[in-house]
Amino acid sequence: MPNHVTNYLTINAEGDILEKIKREISSGDGDEYTPIDFNKILPRPEELDITSGSQTDNAIAVMLYKKSGEDKRLREMLNWHWPKEEGIATMDELVTHLIDKGLVDFDMAERAINNMKEYGHADWYSWSIDKWGTKWNAYSTEDNGDEIVFQTAWSCPEGVIVALSQKYPEVEFTVRYADEDFGANVGEFGIIDGVETWTNIPDNGSVEAFRLAMDILKDEWRVEYCLNDIEEDSSPSDWGNYEKLMCDFAYEYSLVESSYPECVLTHLEEKAVARENYELASLIKEKRKEKEEE
To answer: 225-246: per-residue pLDDT in tens?
Structure first.
C-alpha cells in the first residue's frame, strides 16, 4: 500500500468562473461523482491501459532478442536463481523455456512497444508517474465549495496541478499537501498559468514541517497518542523535542484529554494561565476533574 498524501486544492475564483472550472474538472453522478478527475485535466491515453508485469517484460525481451540481438534483460535473467535451477545456460535455452512455460505475453508486448513509440511510455503506470506525478487518479475526494480535498499515492500530483493552471491561466490555484508520514513530504504553493508564484516546502522532520503537517491534517489522535505515552513522573525538561512540539499542538488546538499524565496537564495549565488563556485553563480543570472521577 502507498503512503496517502492529502491534498487541499483551492480555486481562487468566484461565481460563474468557479462553477465552470468545477464542472469541467469533475466527473460522474451520484455515488460515482468526484469533484476532481485527473483525466478531465490531463487525459491519459486509453492505449496505455494495459497489463504490465513480468510476462509483458519477458515478451519484449524475447522480441528484441529475436529482432535485433538485444539481450540485456535476458542476460540479467540468466543470473537469477531459477534459470540455474532449471539448468538453463544460454540465451536460446532461456527464450525456449519462457515461451514453452507461457511466461510471455506477446500481445501485451506488442502494445507496449507501440505505446513507447507513440507516447514514450509502455503502460499507464509509467505515464502516470511522469505526467501526473502520481500513479493513480484522485481518491477520497471532498467538494468544499472553492476547495477540493483529495488523496493521492505517495506524492502531490504536481503535473496535474500545472496542467490545471495552464488550462485556466487567469486563475490562481493554491495547493497544500501532507503525507501520512507525519512531518515528511509536506508543502504548499500558489500557481498561475503553470508558474509557481510562491512556495513553502519545509525540510522533512523540521519543526516547520511538523507544524505545516498538523495544520493540514489536523491529526488530533497523533497528539493524544504521544502525550498519553509520556511518563507520569516526568517534567518538560525530560521530554524530547517531539513531545514538546506535541504539547505545543495540544495548547494551540485545545486538544486536552483527561487521559493525559498529570505532568502534561500541569504544563498545559501553567502555559494557559501565563498567556491568559483562561478558557483553555478552565477546560484543563474540567479534564482534571474527569480524571479524578475515573
So the answer is: 999 999 998 999 999 999 999 9
